[in-house]
Amino acid sequence: MSKQKTQVQAFTLPTGDTDTSASSDIVKKYLFHWPLFVLGVILFIVGAYFYLQVTKPTYPIVATLEFKGPTSSEGTVIGKNGQDANLDPISTPVIVENEIEVMQSKKLMYKVVNDLQLWVNYQSTIDGKKTDLYKQTPLTFAFIKANNTIDGKGEKIKVVIKDANSFTLIDDENGDKDFAYGSSVKSDFGTWKLTPTTNFNSFKGATLNITVNDPDQVADDYQGRVKVELENKDAPFVNLSTSDQVPSRGKDILNELMAQYKEDAMSSKNKDAQKAIDFITVRLDSLDRDLDIDEKQIEVFKSSSSMTDIASQSQGFRDISQANIKASNEANLQLSILEGIEKWVDNPKNAGALPPTSAHLEDPSLMALYEKLTVAQLKKSDMLATIPESNPMFNSVNEQLDALRKAFKDKISAMKASQLAIKNQIANFQGGIQAGLKKIPEQDREYTSMKRKQASKEKIYTFLLEKREAISLRYASTVSDSEIVDDAHAGKAKWPKPSIVYALALLFGLAAPIGLLYARESLNERISNRKQIEDAVNVPILGELSYQEDTTPIVVTQGRGKFAIGEQFRVLRTNLSHLHGNSDKGRVTLFTSSIGSEGKSFVSSNLAVTLAYASRKTIILEMDLRKPKISGVFGLSPEHPGISDYLAELKTDIKALIQPSGIPGLDVLGCGPIQPNPSELLEKDKLDELINTLKETYDDILIDSPPIHLVTDSYIIARTAGAVVYMIRQGHTLKDELEFINDVDNAKRFPKFTLVFNGIKRDQFNYGYGYTNSYYSSYNTYTDKDKETIGSKIRTFVRRF
Question: What is the uppermost EC class here (predicted)?
């Protein structure tokens, strides 16, 4: 367990990455490039200064409009008493949101642009600056005839005010020409003229630049710049705002926009009111004609039906009918009484008695006869009491009684005939009354129908008549629903503000280098730090080596001035010992890389020197049989017989091939003459014999081999190695090679496969503190530190960009 722990620790170097937070590393990485930040800040500050010099200030323009009439934000229009108010557009509630859209419409802005002539721009150079001459122009432009062919960028006219009578038109193509004021000038976009203004005398000899634009495009531009907003939904105040480099022009635009809106609203309201009045008038005329027809129909109906008032007439009929019934009953009663008396009179048995009488008999003559008859009968009765009936005295009495009876009977017959006549007359009259009563419902229905139509039209007629009078009165005194609370006024310049511009310049001066460095790092296809390696591959990193600017290949022999790089190789030597484990003699280490110039020859040769300094007998084998470098590193002759001679069996004495390096304990076995078939030579068993023989003599055998991404030699040699060290160089090895390294590791092509991160520029890439800081920097303060040359200082400074 302890060995495994030691081995893992061997591959984890005490770099600054483990002691510094990610944010601190980022800050240090960017601080290394401080000259770039200083340059960026200076450039942006200078740019901000010139920007402030050439940029004209922009002023905010604001105005406020109030809606005083009834307003609605729900879009519902309701008249008084719940009636439809569409016939009265003047009193219709204003929907503020709709009015805001009207104020922002292209139609109104187009009117503003034309009324203020904003489609023509006048500029002149005053005190070295181009100045907008709104309301200060010495000349005004006017079309005599437009061709409607104005370019999208506007037509440019350049004139020089020559004198009080003429001006010079600058024409680079056809030459300059003089024209009198008010005379017509023909151009591609139309015929036009220039007229002097009251400001003419202040611009004699000046050059005037006139730009004629398409009014539609100018209206679109100003429409997008003007904002109309409802300040509060509960309060009918609307704010209008815009911005302009000429405050007077901005104020004129808002004031003219509000005026145009009010005029358009009044015109629209009056137009709608007039339409309503005209409609009501036409409708009233139609209703008047209809009412005349209906009234004539009622008149004819009443005349033909002999009707004045159906209700009174029907009531009269009912009263007459009741009276007739009563009279008929009375006649029946009289007839009944008379018939009873008549029967009594006609009965012979009742000759000596008085006839019955009734209180219902109303005829006075009959009652008089009855009284006479009663008196005569009583007289006879009194005489019978003393005189017998056969007495001649009764003759006159009997004659009187007979005469009275005859007269009484005749009277009853006459009265009976009279009552029968009355009864028949009543019956006839009652039949007419009943016929009249039967016609009354039908007449009432027809009359009610005609009256209903007439009443309905009369009601509509009255309503429309009142509505027309009301609208006419309001139309005569129409006022606007809106009122200007604040005329357009300009505030302080909102842009450019020097403090904000310089603050932004400082911000961009710092942000631009950051963006540049980030982009440069993102676009960099080469490996720049250890984290990129650890995130991409699972192969452990054996060690890290700093970049060296010296041309001397063996850097660990340069004395104490190279303490840092020497110490890094000592750490690498220690880690290599842990990598090989318990092996103490005959350790074989193969050095390779993906491509050339990644430092395998530099690392293998300096590590060999370090091993020799540790009293380990070491030999380095120059097995890059295609492009050998080791012999040159140690200053040995490349012509000396070497490995190729041995593998080709041209030389068999290994000791004769080995050369001393000049460093105690370190030998070199060179490549020898370059052969045409190095791969075939390396596949021979002679290579295994060579390595086994060297193991008996040397503690460490280091093999410098070719890059494996170019040739397969390293794969062949790897069978003899106990460990393989793969070189990755900062700023040189491509990131794509990390995937290749993973493939090699997954294929298990190398034993004890490890990596060395070489050529690290810790300051430039912010790769931790490195071995040049902290303890090692302190160590250099009391060692003989090499003096930096001017060239190295310049190179270091340039790398900071």
Answer: transferase
374 found inside a domain:
yes
pTM for the predicted model, two decimal places? 0.54
pLDDT of residue 476: 62
Kindly write down the DSSP assignment for every residue of 149-201, as one continuous string.
---TT-EEEEEEE-SSSEEEE--TTT--EEEETT--EEETTEEEEEEE-TTGG
Contact 420, 334 (CB under 8 A): no
pLDDT of residue 577: 92
Residue type, 89: P
- Here the CATH number for the domain that contains residue 557 is 3.40.50.300
Q: CB under 8 Å to 566, separation ≥6 — which residues?
A: 555, 556, 558, 610
Identify the domain boundary among 245, 264, 296.
245
Helical segments of 683-789, H only: 685-695, 713-717, 736-746, 762-765, 774-780
Q: CA 219 from chain center: how many Å?
A: 23
Residues 612, 730: one domain? yes
Give the rounded distance of the alpha carbon of 495 from its chain centre: 26
Same-domain status, 609 and 706: yes
- Report the pLDDT value the prediction gives residue 9, as an integer from 0 to 100: 36
pLDDT in tens, 306-348: 666 666 666 766 777 777 777 777 778 777 777 777 777 776 6
Which of 196, 223, 245 corresponds to the end of one domain?
245
Contact 759/727 with Cβ under 8 angstroms?
no
The C-alpha atoms of residue 797 and residue 801 are separated, in whole angstroms, by 8
Q: Tokens 């009876």 correspond to what residue? A: 405
Which pLDDT score, from 0 to 100, does residue 244 have?
Answer: 92
DSSP state at residue 69: S
pLDDT score of 129: 80
Say yes or no: 105 and 184 in one domain.
yes
pLDDT for position 307: 64
Instruction: Provide CB contacts within 8 A for 400, sequence distance 6+.
Output: 376
Q: Are residues 470 and 534 in the same domain?
A: no
With a cut of 50, which residues of the chain have pLDDT below it?
Answer: 1-20, 74-83, 558, 561, 767-786
DSSP label of 772: T
- Domain hosting 195: range is 66-245
- Same domain for 329 and 449, yes or no, is yes
Asked if residue 675 and residue 583 are part of one domain, the reply reads yes
Look at the chain and report how many structural domains it folds into: 3
Task: Tell me if 506 is assigned to some domain.
Answer: no
Provide the residue type at 600 as one letter. Answer: K
Cα separation, 320 vs 225, whole angstroms = 91
What is the Cα–Cα distance from 640 to 672, expressed in whole angstroms? 6
Q: Does a structural domain hold residue 341?
A: yes
Residue in 487, 60, 495, 116 with CA at minimum distance from that of residue 244: 60
3-state SS string for 610-640: HHHHCCCCEEEEECCCCCCCHHHHCCCCCCC
b (16+ CB within 10 A) / e for 756-765: bbbbbbbbbb
Is residue 253 in some structural domain? no
Closest listed residue to residue 715, CA positions, set 751, 756, 767? 751
Give the C-alpha separation, 458 to 33, whole Å: 96
Compute the CA torsion angle 550, 552, 553, 556 (nearest 10 deg).
-80
Neighbour-count burial for 152-165, b at 16+ CB within 10 Å, e otherwise: eebbebebebeeee
Residue 253: which of 212, 213, 218, 210 has the closest Cα? Answer: 218
Rounded to whole angstroms, the Cα distance separating 294 from 253 reads 60
Report the distance separating Cα 8 and Cα 731, nearest Å: 27
Element (H, E) at 225: helix 215-225
Q: Which residues contact 751 (CB under 8 A, 6 or more apart)?
A: 718, 721, 722, 723, 724
Residue 724, judged by CB atoms within 10 A of its CB (0-12, 13-18, 19+), counts as: buried
Residue pair 635/662 in contact (Cβ under 8 Å)? The answer is yes
